[in-house]
Design brief:
heterotrimer, A: about 900 residues, Sodium/glucose cotransporter, five-stranded mixed sheet, 36 helices, 9 strands, B: mainly alpha, two-stranded antiparallel ribbon, 3 helices, about 5% strand
Chain lengths: ~900, ~70, ~120
């Protein structure tokens, strides 16, 4: 029979041992020989997940509903597989931004928003306080059981003065104050604390295994014996199969997946207290293994308890303790009691410290700093104030939890209270997961989502719980508020047939996620939000040194930054920090006056480690004259950043583009060269064409002037030549001018109705002499009458002359023959000029219409013209919306044809 | 190294997906029979075996090639 | 005995003017309007000097010059190239092929005659 005094003494001794371990851990850390710099301590400290709920509650739940207790441990196992992505990213982000708590994390992500930090803190405190009180309840219950040998508990609550739980709460507060607020900088590791938590994980695991082995192999004859006995009892057999509540099962799995990431104590141990990212690797499989081990004997103990206390009104939550006691195993019972105590205390300590950091950094400080009349920002010793706030909040949280425990009492089993807390922290999931993977998530979206989710959670879980504890009228649950059945808190909008937790999760997640996404998509994010979103989402891509500073633009003196930091931290330490920083960056902070962006960022982060990102932002802005970046500038910077990220890909693309460009350039260059040589050829051709008549003109002019005695006949012959050659010269010059006019669009077109038949007749008459000279036969084939076309008469004559003189030039030297046809095709008139010369090679048939291009080698063959005639003709016909082309077979002459549209009478 | 890390991450995601399937309807329903094998209820054998198998796989994925 | 000059050009009017000038200076003269005629005249007329236009259809002045120089019996014939294309490549090309001088159109009649006289007296 255990004496109450002995139990009390042992519990205080145990907590004393915790103090000693924590103290030793801190001493080792100060001496530079850290105990926690190994992955096993890290994995064990994560075991803070297993609380009194696990230690006592799992058996209780297993005894009531069988395997239903397991999703709470399967969820974290599954999530551990994703830690590689999710938790690693959260750790990296938190280290780079000196995050101190989950509220800090969310606030920092959404533009260091004080409002968000406060909201998250409120949700965490409201959600977690019942959970802490659950631990106190467990401690209190276990005391009562072991002290009074009572199988039925909760009949008469002890007075506060005689309640052990109250004194335990005070002791835990002392522990948390001593080891949790030792440093001001909340990002500094509380090594002693972590070592103590790891130790507690070992204690609770070993004691639970011990009682499991005792029940299975001492009380009964192994697992087989236990289950075959249970199998004989049809009531117990029901525990062997799953209840057909797979929706609840899935929701519980999801809840615990979120809880393992977002419970403030888990965040604190896994993220804030993490000393090395590599430790996570081992924890990924060690932590699930720990969960498996601690759950191995839950079912055997539950079965053992049910078999041992048949038909007795025993709370199955106390089986773990009652079984060894009933068998007179007092030492084992004491060990089990200590195991339960360790499970409860570890949770209380870490949760309290985590909540306290949030309350001081994310709730109280931002408010105090904004109250100008306090003139807090001017006070020198802010460090002391913060520590005082933290210590006070530890006491307040524990007392609040104790009060809640007294209030709710024993109306709910352990597990249900815990799940309500899980559901509260699950509300953080959209804001955090969205925040680290989706840049579009905005502050307003997070605020709306969290608020809606929190409200629905409050309405569907804690409020009806208050009604169950008779603090609200029971009709609130049964009939709904004011009798509105649609608003019944367990059957919102008539949703029935699911567990209250699943029910609450469904609605709260729907409004939370919906609000977050929709508002994010609709709202215009602020500049700082953009920056923080990039820092969080692209944390693995960003350069840790340069990732943040470039967003800042402003001016501050080094001196003002130093004195700002000194108000929160030990001035000597600040001095050391600046010296180290200066040494690393290569400047002399005693001489330089203006701080650069890097230094301001550095100071803000140091400060964030003490008072949280949102408050640090406020403080730094008070000394920094900041020029706010415009949206465009931030977008530029972000573009630049993403460009750096996409560097290699873009480089690849660029080289391709470059290659394409160089190919284009090469082609263009060749075209230019060709154009150039064409121009050369043209000039050369024109030169030749100009020089030839000039030669005759000059020669005969000299002859005439040098020989005044020439006979009159010869004189007039020579004069005629000069005249003819001058005309030739004029023609050429006109052609060059024509072409340049047409090409530059300066040609004047005198449009009129033109009778093509008449024009052809006239032109033929004017060229009659050419035909006779060359002895070429002309065959005309014209219809009696054709409709008029709209054109410039002179230009049409020019085209006809050109084509006819070409035909004469290229005609066969013997039996030369030129035919001219005019045909009416209804909507167009077509003119064909046909010769019987050598024809044009198919390759050259388009070339001859290009200007300056004449068929044949221009160097050796005398061109038959300027190379401008046909191009000019084509330009002219094009202008009248007609077509000009050639058909030819080498050896059998060529046909040049052009069409003109008949004038539309309409 | 980078590639190795990525492969490792992908394998862990695969474990997660497999785990989600194993510990959910309908597989659970399949093993939820009123029977005992080797003295242990079938459902418990299934859940704990699958659980342990997942942990071993995770350990293999993590610890493999992690030794420097 | 008067020196013999062959004038080759496809531009009739230029031939007419050269014909007048050469005859006036007292040389014996024949004319040709293309390269083929020119080569035939060289064999038949055996001129002392040729005024040779470069740009002619079919056989160019360059080709005529090259063929004349290929024949050892015609090495003494002086060749003065006439061209309307005053580009240096062409001058070099003509001189390389064995022409003695190069005259660019339009030319001064006095200079041309002086050039002819100079080459015939060498």
């Amino acid at each position: 029979m255990l004496q109450g005094g002995v139990v009390l003494l042992v519990s205080f001794l145990y907590i004393g041992l915790l103090f000693a371990i924590a103290y030793y851990g801190d001493k080792r850390a100060d001496a530079g020989r850290s105990l926690i710099s190994n992955p096993y301590i890290y994995a064990l400290s994560l075991g803070v997940y297993c609380t009194a709920w696990t230690f006592y509650g799992s058996v209780g739940r297993a005894a009531r509903t069988g395997i239903d207790f397991l999703p709470i441990y399967l969820g974290p196992t599954l999530m551990a597989a994703l830690w590689w992505f999710v938790l690693r990213k959260m750790i990296r982000i938190s280290k780079l931004n000196r995050i101190t708590s989950i509220a800090d994390f969310i606030a920092s992500r959404y533009g260091k928003s004080s409002a968000l930090a406060g909201l998250v803190t409120v949700i965490a405190v409201v959600g977690i306080t019942p959970y802490i009180s659950l631990q106190l309840k467990a401690i209190s219950n276990s005391f009562e059981v072991i002290w009074h040998q009572s199988k039925i508990i909760g009949t008469a609550a002890p007075t506060i003065a005689s309640d052990t739980a109250f004194y335990i709460a005070l002791l835990l507060a002392a522990f948390a104050i001593l080891f949790g607020t030792r440093h001001l900088d909340a990002t500094e590791h509380h090594e002693g604390l972590v070592v103590a938590i790891a130790f507690e994980s070992v204690v609770k695991l070993l004691t639970f295994l011990a009682v499991g082995i005792f029940v299975t192999y001492g009380l009964y004859d192994g697992v087989t014996d236990l289950s075959s006995r249970a199998f004989a009892d049809p009531e117990l057999t029901a525990l062997f199969t799953a209840r057909d509540a797979y929706t609840d099962w899935a929701w519980f799995t999801f809840l615990s997946m979120m809880a393992i990431l977002f419970l403030p104590r888990q965040f604190h141990i896994a993220v804030v207290e993490n000393v090395n990212e590599q430790h996570l690797n081992k924890a990924i499989w060690l932590f699930p293994l720990y969960l498996l081990a601690i759950n191995l004997f839950v079912i055997p103990i539950a079965l053992g308890g049910l078999l041992h206390f048949p038909n007795e009104a025993v709370d199955p939550d106390t089986f773990v303790l009652l079984l060894p006691m009933a068998e007179g195993q007092e030492l084992l019972a004491l060990l089990v009691f200590l195991g339960g105590l360790s499970a409860a205390t570890s949770m209380v300590i870490v949760a309290t410290i985590a909540l306290t950091t949030m309350i001081s950094n994310d709730l109280i400080m931002p408010v105090l700093l904004r109250w100008q009349w306090l003139e807090l920002a001017k006070r020198d010793d802010l460090g002391g104030l913060i520590l005082t706030i933290r210590r006070l909040s530890i006491i307040i949280i524990l007392m609040l939890s104790y009060y809640y425990f007294r209030l709710i009492g024993n109306t709910q089993p352990l597990v249900s209270i815990g799940l309500v807390s899980f559901a509260a922290v699950a509300q953080f999931a959209p804001a955090i997961l969205g925040g680290i993977y989706w840049k579009g998530g905005s502050r307003l979206g997070a605020l709306v989502g969290l608020s809606l989710g929190f409200m629905v959670w409050g309405y569907t879980l804690p409020l009806p719980a208050l009604a169950e504890a008779n603090l609200l009228p029971a009709s609130f649950i049964t009939a709904g508020p004011f009798g509105i059945t649609l608003l019944k808190p367990y059957q919102l909008f008539g949703l029935q047939g699911v567990n209250p937790i699943s029910h609450a999760m469904l609605w709260s997640m729907m409004v939370n996620l919906g609000g977050y996404v929709i508002v994010s998509l609709l709202s215009q994010p602020r500049v700082l939000e953009h920056r923080q979103a990039t820092l969080f989402v692209d944390v693995f891509e960003l350069d840790s040194e340069n990732g943040t500073a470039k967003f800042w633009r402003g001016s501050a003196t080094i001196d003002s930054l130093r004195s700002l930091l000194s108000r929160f931290l030990d001035p000597k330490r600040v001095s050391d920090m600046f010296t180290d920083y200066a040494k690393a960056r290569g400047f002399d902070w005693t001489k330089d006056i203006i701080a650069d962006a890097d230094l301001v960022d550095f100071v803000e982060k140091q400060l964030a480690g003490v008072i949280g990102a949102a408050s640090a932002r406020v403080m730094v802005s008070s000394v920094v004259k900041e020029e706010s970046l415009s949206m465009e500038e931030v977008m530029d910077i972000l573009d630049e950043t993403s460009q750096v990220i996409a560097h290699s890909r873009e480089l690849e693309q660029k080289s391709e583009t470059l290659e394409a460009a160089s190919v284009e350039l090469r082609t263009a260059n060749e075209q230019l060269k060709e154009l150039d040589s064409m121009k050369d050829d043209f000039i050369s051709t024109v030169t030749h064409e100009l020089r030839t008549p000039l030669t005759s003109i000059r020669a005969f002019s000299e002859i005439l002037s040098d020989n005044p005695d020439l006979e009159i006949e010869q004189r007039s012959q020579f004069s005629a030549i000069i005249l003819k050659e001058s005309e030739r010269l004029t023609r050429l010059i006109n052609q060059v001018l024509d072409l340049s006019k047409i090409e530059s669009g300066q040609m004047e077109w005198i449009m009129s109705e033109v009778d093509l038949r008449a024009i052809i007749s006239e032109t033929v008459i004017s060229t009659d002499r050419l035909f006779q000279d060359q002895n070429i036969e002309l065959i005309l084939d014209l219809p009696g009458q054709v409709p008029p076309v709209m054109a410039d008469r002179d230009r049409i004559i020019q085209v006809l002359l050109n084509l006819i003189s070409n035909a004469i030039k290229f005609c066969a030297t013997e039996n030369g023959q030129v035919e001219i046809w005019l045909q009416n095709y209804g909507d167009i008139l077509q003119v064909d000029v046909i010769d019987n010369g050598t024809g044009i090679h198919p390759d050259d048939q388009e070339v001859i219409f290009e200007k300056f291009r004449q068929v044949g080698d221009t160097l050796t063959e005398k061109p038959q013209g300027t190379g401008l005639g046909l191009p000019i003709c084509r330009h002219i016909i094009d202008h009248f919306n007609g077509k000009l082309w050639v058909e030819s077979n080498p050896g059998s002459g060529s046909t040049f044809s052009f069409t003109l549209p008949i004038k539309n009478e309409v | 190294m980078e590639k190795q890390q990525r492969v490792r991450g992908q394998r862990l995601v695969a474990i997660f997906i497999v785990g989600c399937l194993l510990f959910n309807y309908p597989l659970l329903q399949l093993f939820s029979v009123n029977n005992i094998i080797g003295g242990i209820p079938v459902l418990y054998i299934y859940v704990f075996t699958a659980w342990l198998a997942l942990i071993i796989l995770m350990a293999l994925i993590i610890e493999r090639r992690d030794k420097k | 005995m008067a020196k013999k000059i062959l004038v080759v050009d496809d531009e009739v009017n230029i031939v007419v003017s050269l014909e007048f000038l050469v005859k006036r200076a007292g040389y014996e003269l024949r004319t040709a309007n293309n390269g083929e005629q020119a080569l035939a005249q060289v064999a038949q007329f055996e001129p002392d000097l040729i005024l040779l236009d470069v740009m002619m259809p079919k056989i160019s002045g360059f080709e005529v010059c090259r063929r004349i120089r290929m024949n050892s019996a015609w090495q003494h014939i002086k060749i003065i190239m006439l061209t309307a294309k005053g580009r240096e490549v062409e001058m070099t090309k003509g001189l390389d092929l064995g022409a003695d001088a190069y005259v660019i159109k339009p030319f001064s009649t006095k200079e041309l005659m002086a050039e002819i006289k100079k080459h015939l007296e060498d």
